[in-house]
Each structure stands twice: as structure tokens, then as C-alpha cells.
Specification:
Elements lengths: L2 E5 L16 H11 L5 E4 L5 H4 L5 H10 L6 E2 L5 E2 L3 H20 L5 E4 L21 H12 L5 E5 L6 H6 L6 E8 L18 E6 L5 H19 L3 E6 L16 H19 L3 E5 L5 H19 L1
Parallel strand pairs: 1-2, 1-5, 5-10, 6-7, 6-9, 7-8, 9-10
Antiparallel strand pairs: 3-4
Bound molecules: zinc ion (ZN).
Length: 308
């Protein structure tokens, strides 16, 4: 068994304006950091409409296509931009997550990391936002449930921002546990513990600004891991954002690269016990290029170790 790295050159074709934090160089740095690792490299397929329609209405797909510029950039909201290649990039990002679920559930690999962009966890049903166009992780969760027939899928989102999109897309899905930790207060402002999902299946874990690895580890050990154990998922999906790093310019948590390694190892350990090590991890945020590359590498090294 092994670990898959799923990506596609089209993900470099989503070009944001100069100075935008969610930029092509992010993926270049992540892929460079993975270059020497022992991974099964798979090309991300293009998500079809049927994949995207598991989470978004046709009107959302139509809106994004209609907004694509012929050249340059088109602005969807204060943070979210389109370039001519953005739809293809976003379809490869969603397609990678679906392909990763197929590879892991089909026994092709033990676990998988999707090195893709744009990220997905802020995209709601009909609202692209926060650099995100399609809900990549939620689409993968629904694919695992509806296509593969799983009964319980867990999503852990450790991006520093609240996964409001994943929460919206899985709000009424009793077969999906969503656990999301985030700095609070911080954009987008949601993610309070009182937000629990239609079936009480969502756990929001706020973390205080300037808190670090010790506070994170305590929160995961007391709140997150017991909840994961009790849910007993058949597959663990991870929204792997690395913007809680102390060097990240967009937030104020103070995790180190070794904190990401610890969290990755602990999540893999739980998955080993709960679901045969079946983990699909999808890149979300992370905006300091060096911190992103080092933390993503530590994360994937733990996936590789767990997948041996
Ligand atoms: Zn983020």
C-alpha cells in the first residue's frame, strides 16, 4: 500500500491578481516540497457536472461559467477572482478529491493527498467565496456516501478559517460528521460551538487568537478525537489548510510545522484504528510560501508513514 499525490497542471491556470494571497506560487511550492517523496502520482480528472451537482445547483455552475473572463481577471466578491482557466482548475480540484476517494476506497492506495487549487471549504451551495468556487471536500464526502454507499464519513477541517462552505453543504447530512477548528474571531465570522448541524453532527472548535500548539493539542485531545472515535467513520477526509502556522500572514494562530506533523500523525493513528487507515486529505489554505511548503510536506510525510 502507498500514498497517492493527486494534482493537475490545470490548477496552475487559475491566476489571481498580483498581490493576492491565493496564488499560483502556492501550488508550485507545495509540489516542489513533495518532489523527493515516495508517492504514487496520479493526474486529477476533471469533475463532471454530476460530481458538482452533488453539492451545488446547476445555477451555481452556470454562474461561474458565465463569469469567466476572456482574458485578465473577473471579480466575484472582495476576495474571489476568476481568470480564463479558473473553471478548469476548480474542476480538477474537485475531481482530485473524488478520484482520491475512489483510489482509497478501491484499495489502490492506503491514503491520498490532493495538491490542488483553488481551495474549496468556503464555497456554499450558490455562493463562491473566500477564494473558493466548489466545495471540494463536501463533494468528496457525498461521493463516498452516495456513490460508494458508505454510511459514515468524517471530515476534519484544521484550516485556520471556519469551513463555512463545508458546513453549509453538509448541514443536513446525518451520515457526515464535520469537525472544524478555527481561530475565532476571524473571517468569515461563523463557526461558533452553537452551530451544530441539523442532526447535531457538526462540531465547531474555536481557538483564541495567538494561541499555539499546546492549546490546539488540548482541544483536539479533549474535543475532537473523542468525537471522531464515537462516530466511527468508514473514511476520514481532511481539509488541510496550513494557515494556522505562526508565519502565516492571514491569521494569528501560532502553530509550528511540528504541530501540523503531530496533528497529521494523530489523525492517521485514529484512522488506522477506526477505518483501516483510509484518509483523503485535500489542500485548503496556507499563505506563507515557506511555512506552507514545510507544513504540507510534514503532513504528507505522516500520510506516507501511516500508509506503509
Ligand atoms: Zn484558511
Amino acid at each position: 500500500m502507498t500514498t497517492a499525490l493527486i494534482t493537475h497542471a490545470d490548477c496552475l491556470g487559475h491566476v489571481t491578481p498580483p498581490g493576492h494571497p491565493e496564488r499560483v506560487a502556492r501550488l508550485d511550492h507545495v509540489l516542489h516540497a513533495m518532489a523527493a517523496l515516495d508517492l504514487l502520482r496520479l493526474a486529477a480528472p476533471r469533475a463532471g457536472d454530476a460530481d458538482l451537482l452533488r453539492c451545488h445547483p446547476q445555477a451555481h455552475l452556470d454562474r461561474i461559467r458565465a463569469a469567466l473572463p476572456a482574458g485578465g481577471a473577473a471579480q466575484l466578491d472582495a476576495d474571489t477572482w476568476l481568470s480564463p482557466g479558473s473553471e478548469e482548475a476548480a474542476r480538477r480540484a474537485a475531481g482530485a478529491a473524488v478520484r482520491a476517494v475512489d483510489a482509497v476506497l478501491g484499495g489502490e492506495v492506503r491514503n491520498a493527498f490532493c495538491a490542488t487549487r483553488p481551495p474549496g471549504h468556503h464555497a456554499e451551495q450558490e455562493t463562491p467565496m473566500g477564494f473558493c468556487l466548489f466545495g471540494n471536500v463536501a463533494i468528496a464526502a457525498r461521493h463516498a456516501l452516495d456513490h460508494h454507499g458508505l454510511e459514515r464519513v468524517a471530515v476534519v477541517d484544521f484550516d485556520v478559517h471556519h469551513g463555512n462552505g463545508t458546513q453549509a453543504l453538509l448541514w443536513d447530512e446525518p451520515r457526515a460528521l464535520l469537525v472544524t477548528s478555527q481561530q475565532m474571531p476571524l473571517w468569515p465570522g461563523s463557526g461558533a460551538p452553537s452551530e451544530r448541524g441539523a442532526h447535531g453532527q457538526i462540531l465547531n472548535v474555536p481557538l483564541a487568537p495567538r494561541s499555539g500548539g499546546a492549546e490546539m493539542r488540548a482541544a483536539y485531545e479533549t474535543l475532537v478525537f473523542p468525537r471522531l472515535d464515537a462516530f466511527a467513520p468508514e473514511l476520514l477526509l481532511i481539509s488541510a489548510g496550513f494557515d494556522a502556522h505562526q508565519d502565516d500572514p492571514l491569521a494569528e494562530l501560532a502553530w509550528s510545522t511540528e504541530d501540523f506533523r503531530w496533528l497529521s500523525r494523530e489523525l492517521c493513528r485514529r484512522a488506522e484504528t477506526l477505518c483501516g487507515g483510509r484518509v483523503v486529505s485535500v489542500l485548503e489554505g496556507g499563505y506563507d510560501l515557506e511555512a506552507l511548503a514545510a507544513s504540507a510536506r510534514a503532513h504528507v510525510e505522516e500520510l506516507i508513514e501511516a500508509g506503509k
